[in-house]
Amino acid sequence: MKKILHGILLMMTFGIMGQTKNDSVSSFQKMKEAIKLELKEELKAELKKDFIKENKSLVDWSKFTLSGYGVVNYYHYGRYDTDLNIKDKFDAERLNLYLGYNFNDWISFKSEIEFEHGGTGSTIELDTQEEFGEYEQEIESGGEVKIEQIHINFAIRPYLNVRVGRMKIHFGLAQDLDRPISYFTTHRQEMENEILPLGWYENGVQIHGIFWKRLKYEVSITNGLDASGFSSRGWIKDGYQTRFEMANGNSLAFTGRLDYKFGKNKYTYVGMSAYLNDAAANRPKNDMSESAYVTILEGHITYDEDYLRFNSVILWGNLENSNIVSRKNSSLSNNLGVKRTPVGKNTLGFSFEGGYEILHFINTTAKQKIYPFIRYDYYDTMHEVEGNVIRKPRWERSALMGGINWFVHPQIVLKAHYQNRRLGSDNYDPVTSLYTGRKQEENTLSAGIGFSF
Question: What is the model's pTM?
Answer without folding.
Answer: 0.83
